[in-house]
Amino acid sequence: MFDFYKKHSINARLGRKGAVQSITLQNGGRKHLFVGFDSVMDIGLRSPTNIFGQPTDQLLFDLDAALSQWDNQSTSSPVTKIAFGHFPISFSALTTSGRSIRDVFLKHSLSAYLCGHLHTNFGRNLKRHHTSEKHRFSSKQYFQFDIREGMSTAVINDNCSARTESATEFWEWEMGDWRSARSMRILAIDSGHVSYADMDFIFGSRDVIIVPTFPLDSRFMQRSSDPFDFICQATSAAHIGTVRALVFSRYKIEYVTAKVYELHSGSFHLVLEQEMENTSGKGAMYTVAWNWRDFSDESPDRYWLQIEAVDMSGEVYLSERRPFSVNGLTAKFSWTWKEFTVMGCQWNQLYFPIMWTTLAFLFSLVLVPRTSLTFYENQFMLKLLKPKMTRRSSGGFSAVNFEFFGVELSKMYIIWSGMLLYLLYLVFFPWFTGYAVMEDHNKMYLHYKGWSTKYLANTSSMPYIGLPDVMVIVLPHLLFVVLPAFLIIAAIAAERALYLGHNIYQRAKKDGDHYKETCYTEYLCIFYWIRKILILLCLPIVWKHWKHCRSIMRAYEVNPFIDAPIYCFGVPALLWLAIYRSSSLGVYHI
Predict the structure, then answer these.
(1) Is the pTM of this model over 0.90?
(2) Most buried in the list 123, 160, 273, 431, measured by CB within 10 Å?
(3) How far apart are CA 423 and CA 366, in angstroms?
């Protein structure tokens, strides 16, 4: 009943009820197909476990049908296909059969997929090029390290007859939002070539907006098939012989100029300046003829285009300077680490590998020392270990054997048992219960596999929903709370083992040498500060965990004492026990 869009939106008034809608515009013998789709989960989960698109097999079937509607037509008019959706590919889950939206887009070789969700929160270059080239490495399903997946190459010796079947591909362009960033995008389709310009209106409106439409930006708009389109179709495609731009203005435009710069040694040098003409007299399109072969070069970013417009008041407006390549080559451009994290990582594929790798390390941290301790006990090694250390330490303060402090954690039996039980709880039991759905008054259980639907009314036969959305709770808890807490506990155990192994107080008491007694006192101070540092390191872990628990309490109306006692208090309790057990050695009484 809270889905107001179903009742009051424009689509509702027009009777559009499906999750896929399309419209086709035709101009100049070319069709332009626009397809929009909704991949939001049918069951509306509360934030934050609703960050992934959840396409179904039926949605992909409908999307494929919408994109194919002109493929079997008898007319040979070319079709430019553009898709719209909320979620980027990196935040779109697979269907139950293992298919993805990306597969459908590659099948149709879209010109562009425009999406939102992330907007400009993580950077301005949230763009990604997808291709189905078969020779790419297998880690492609998990990572894409550069904005462009695969680089285009020039046509060798203009040998157009040697052209092979081009790889299917599409561009993914994240869009800024109007609500917070006051960002708007103008998308232009010029003879099948799709380009765009983004404008920010944070500081108010703009009097003039300039959108260059040809040549294309070689960083973000060039396609792998463009080298053949430029070179091999130059004689039949007259549009390559002109520079074109759209100029929208509140006032009358006096003249528009196309400027081409050459980038040399880090500096731009003007090499072409020509006035453009308004082709329609009243429209926004400006063109100018140029000898494009003069700018043929093996470098994709040697030449840069900028459009200058002057209005009736003499005010000068400039477009963003962008590189181009008439050879159809693509300029390399890399993400920042934040942009790579959200666009280059396929999180629906990475969730389980990261989670199970972390859990495997944590289980090994707990079980391997215990196994070692059992082995040494069976071989009577512990009886020999202590005299050996005494002999090695008789001449000075030497290092303790690794085996000794490696098993010290497992000898702290209560803490060791608590760590093992906590890990088993995370794997086999629900983490907490809460109201995950707005309209349902039954609480749901959260597991690492998703929210359990056992007590959810009117749901499907799926046992869990919200996968991989629950990773926003699972991974931060494992990586930033459990893992560092267990490492701190292991470090406290190691420090305890070193302290006991050297037996500082007994050695200083038996040895009358004042110099050695002074050395032992210095080492005692070192242990004191090490332990203090370890205790201080517990504070940010507890603070991080408290913030997680507080956000979950607010999001899902969780009572920490009833709905999530182990999740909320398990890690702090283990840290407190480790500190208490270690402090019982009396080191603080120096």
Answers:
(1) no
(2) 431
(3) 10
